[in-house]
Every structure is written in structure tokens, then in C-alpha cells.
Amino acid sequence: MGAHLISSRRARDTAVQALLSLLVFAVGLFMITPFVFMLSSAFKPNGLVFVEPLRIIPQHLFLDNFKRIFADPLYPVWYWNSIRVTLITLPLRALLVSLAAYAFARLRFRGKDFLFLVFMATMMITPEATIIPRFLMYKAFRLVDTQWAIVIPAVFDVLFLFMLRQFFATIPRELSEAAFLDGYGHLRIYARVVLPLSKPAMVTMVLFTFIWIWNDYVNPFVFINSMNKQLITTGLQFFQAREGANYALQMAGATFGVIPTIVLFTVTQRYFVQGVATSGIKG
Amino acid sequence: MHAVHGGQVVPAVYAHAARRSAAVAQEARVALAFIAPFFLGFFVFNLLPLLYSAYLSLVNFNSFSEAGPRDFIGLRNYLRAFADRLAMASYARTFLFSLVYVVGIIVLGFVTALLLDRRLFLRTASRTMIYMPYVANVIAIGIVWSIVLNPFGGPINTLLKLLGIPEPALPQWLTGVRSALPTVAGIKVWQNLAFQTIVFLAALQDVPRELYECAQIDGAGWWRRMVRITLPMISPTTFFLVVITVIGSFNSFSIVKALTDGGPGHSTRIITVFIYEQAMRYSYYSYANALACLLFVFILIVTLIQWKAQKAWVHT
Q1: Does the pLDDT value for residue B78 go beyond 70?
Q2: Chain mean pLDDT for chain A
Q3: Where are the domains of chain A?
Q4: Which residue of chain B comes nearest to A27, CA vs CA?
Q5: Is this complex's ipTM strictly greater than 0.90?
């Protein structure tokens, strides 16, 4: 009888689990509905987008929208600009941020706590709040309407300084002390001991840097004027305005706009979730 | 035992101390070299704009002529803000927008985390789908939602019409003066849900299992365990999330630019959009900066109130 009770209870638990699973899966489907509709409309001629909006799989796959995107004089340029800006920002950011993080995690010096506090305090103020003084400053530096206005400020990121410092602090001190006794200087300990052990943190940084630059709207919107220098986000906005009533084409443009980050995220989800959970990285 | 140090014979203890202090001095030099490049950039691109912003808000730089005189005019830009009904209405709109957004995302983020905390079939697939909007390009989001929510022929209203809702009663969504602001806030909840969910989920998984086991032995039901264990145990996380979500929502800009650009009428012209227009469209740089500083003070006050209030509900 006891065994019977247990097995019926197990059956009930499984039923509850199945029902909840179904519910959560339905929530997931709800979340991606706009993307499903985006994809579906991108494969329709514009005339059908509002005529049969609920037909998810189009009767005929219509590829002209995508062909027009590829042939567009500007769209591929914005795409490449975003990739290039990320590729230039990444190594600079990785180097300067990790060097400073090493100093905060491993070296003793006067004013360390105070300096770190100053860095952290500025995190409270979002970059949007200082957009006007930055615009005037960049204008004086002749950075406006160049992609350096996106790259250079992005190098000095306090959030990653915080994240890397936390990560470096978890690396056992004995390792660097052993290297120290072998006559290694700090530069070599940083490069040969600490950095190789920090792959997860560095991957998180690369991942978020790419996603942020790809999705950044405010900076290119304010600091870049020329159409051929825009990044994908501001480019898309111009594209949306230019294609006014051609909704299918806009959807094709949006599709390519979201593909790189969604693919990257799906592949590296573990790092992504860890990054958010451990340091409260905000998008 | 003696060691030679600086040409003098000194006892070994001192030599050791001297070596140590030399090592400390050397460490400080290395630290300087490691931090200097970052600090320089940080100073120019993070700190300087802050100071410049405060300065700008106190002078008269409100015209096209860039070389014009910049008289120190004290708090006049600030006084002008309080007399500007459009500006005050924009602050109020930001407040309303934040209220809808923060309540929505904290509640939904918590519920989603509770669901994902269980053992589920297809959990990875569901989780990937739920987190997906978070990494999507904001303008792409704008394009997609404007079409999805198109009141005439968009899929949502087509569906509602099929469900029997008469044409005049169909929601206007982003194009309605009353519905636009909550709609934008709702879309922002959809977009950012992943962040709150992930952080809540991490907190839920940190609650010691023994507490639940003890409670279960004591015969406490689901609701009781939720109120007595889960909510108090995760309250520091909830507090942290509420604070940074409020700060983030007061600074919202991109999502509004992507969806409505402040319209229809003034209905979604939140303060950040208003500030941007004052600076870039009318060149009221000083006035716009005063508005931005006011927003910052406003955020600071709200954060301090939350800080004070945490004693009442945050478990330590």
C-alpha cells in the first residue's frame, strides 16, 4: 500500500511538472511571438503583411526583401561599421580594463579604496545623463561624426573593471606568489598567470561588449551624422523612415539586425547568464 | 648577522623591513603604471562630462552662437525649469512610465524566476526564448512592435477582431494618446525581463534548501513558505533590483525613440526625450543640462528614500 501511495504521488508530481513545463514553454513562445511575426513578414510581399497577418508560414517564400537588403547601398555598410567598431574597441578595452583590474585586485597602494569608490560612484549615473556635455566636448576634440566617438569612450568601462577585479580576486594568491618567487614581475604574473585563468570573465566581457555596441542607439544617434558612418541601430532607424510603408522590407532589415546577437546569445548562454547573475550587469 | 644596505651596515631586521618597504614602493609604482591609462580615459570621458554638466547648467549657453559669452547666471536655468509646464509634465510622465515599468518588471521577473527555478521539461528551450528579447536590437524591436501593434490590420488587433471585439473598441496601442505610454512601458518590460529574471533566479537558488525542508516538516504550505522564507531571504536582491530598475527606467530613452519618438502629441515625451530636444533641436544647452541635473537629483532623492525604507522590509 505504501508503495502504491508513493507511486501515485510520483505520478502526480510528474503531471504537475508536465503542466508547468507546458506553461513555461507557452510563456517562451509568447516572448518570441514578435520575432516569429517579423520573420514571417520578411518572407512576404509587402501587400500581404496586413492582408493575412495571422498566416505565420507564407504560402510562397518571397525572397526579394532580403535581396534588396543585400543590394542596398547603405545597409551592408552599417553592418560592417558595427562589426568594425566592436573589433577595434574590444582589444583596447580588454587590455586597459584588465590592467587596472589587476592593480585593484592584487597590488597595494595608497588611495586604492578611495579611487575604487570614485569609479563605482560614477556607475550610478548612466551615460545618457551626460550626453550633452559629452557632445560639446567631443565637438571640441573633433570626435563628432567619427566612429572614434563611439570607440574611445567605450574603452574605459567601469562595470567591467568591477567585474574583472572581482574575478581576479578569486584566483588563488598562492599561484601569483609562487610566480613572484620564481622572479616574475607583475606584468608577467598578469599576462602569464592571471589572464589565462580568467577566460570565463574575458569571454563574458567580449560577449557583452559585442551585444552592447551592436544594440547601442544613443551614442551613434548623437555623435554620428554621416549616413555612411552610422552603425546598424541608427542605420535601421533611417532605413525604417526611408521605407515608410514597405513593412515587409523593414521586417527583413530588422531580421538581419537581430540575428548576430541572438545567435551569439544562444550559443554562449552560460557565460551570459553567469555574467548577469554574478555582477548584476545591466543592458 | 648584518646586511649591507645603502652603503651602511644595518641589522638584518632593518634590512628586511627596508626590503619590504622597497617592495611596497615598487608595487605602488607598478600599480600607477597599470591604472594610469585607464584612469586618464576615465577622467576625460566619465568624470569631466559630469563636472562640465554641472558647470553648463549654471551659465547662459542657450543659443546657436557657440563662441557667445557664457555668463554665470546662477540657478536661473533651474528656475526656468520649474516655470516650464512642458518640462514638468515630462518629469511627471517619466514618473508614471517608471511606475508601470518597475512594478511590471519586478512582479513578472519574480514570477518567471519562480517558474524557471523548478525542474521542467524543455527548460533550456523555454529559457532561451524568454531571454531572447533582451539581446535584440532596440530599433529592430521598434520596427517589429509598431507593425505588430498596428491598429489597422496588425496581427494583434486582427486577432482581437476575430475574438469578437468590435472595431471601435480595439486598442490604439502606440498610436493612442492614452494608451501609448503604458504600451511603451509594457514593451520595455518584455524587452528587459531577462535581466530581472536571471538575478531573481540566482537569488532563489541561493536560499538554503534546509529552510524549506524544515518548514515542510512543520507542515507549512506553499504560500506560507513563500511569505515566511522565500520573500524575506531574497529581499536584499529584490531591494538591489528595485533600486537599479528605478534608476534605469528614469533614464529610459532609446525605447521611446524607437517606438513613438515622444508622440502621439506629447503623450510619450518623457523627460529624457524632452532634454534631448531642448539641446539638439533648440540648442538650449545650458537649460537642457539643468533639466538633466534636476533629473539626477530626483533619482538621488528616490534612491535615498528607498535606502531609508529598506529597514522596514529588507531582511539582513
Answers
A1: yes
A2: 87
A3: 2-62, 66-279
A4: B130
A5: no
Dist CA B43 CA B41 (whole Å): 5
Q: Does B239 touch chain A (CB under 8 A)?
A: no
Relative to beta strand B2-5, strand B8-11 is: antiparallel
Instruction: State the Cα angle at B249 between B248 and B255, rounded to 5°.
Output: 105
- To the nearest whole Å, the CA of B40 is away from the closest chain A CA by 9
pLDDT at B87 over 80: yes
- Alpha-carbon gap, residue A156 to A154, rounded angstroms: 6
Class of the CATH domain delimited by B84-313: mainly alpha
Measured between alpha carbons, how far is B114 from B133 in angstroms, rounded to an integer? 19
Residue B264 C-alpha cell reads as: 502621439
Per CATH, the number for A66-279 is 1.10.3720.10
Place of cell 529581499: B235
CA distance B94 to chain A (A): 14
Residues B235/B315, Cβ–Cβ less than 8 Å: yes
Q: What's the pLDDT at B67?
A: 53
Instruction: List, for residues B101-113, the tens digit of each pLDDT value.
Output: 999 999 999 999 9
Does the CB of B307 have a partner CB in chain A at under 8 Å? Answer: no
Question: What is the pTM (predicted TM-score) of this model?
Answer: 0.87
pLDDT at residue B69, rounded to an integer: 57
**Contacts with B132 (C-beta within 8 Å, 6 or more apart), sequence order:** A31, A32, A35, A262, A265, B194
Position A126, amino acid:
T
**Confidence category of residue B5, pLDDT binned at 50, 70, 90:** very low
Size of interface A-B (CB pairs under 8 A): 277
Residue B145 to residue B131: CA distance in whole angstroms: 17
* Predicted confidence (pLDDT) at residue A54 exceeds the cutoff of 80: no
Greatest CA separation for chain B: 100
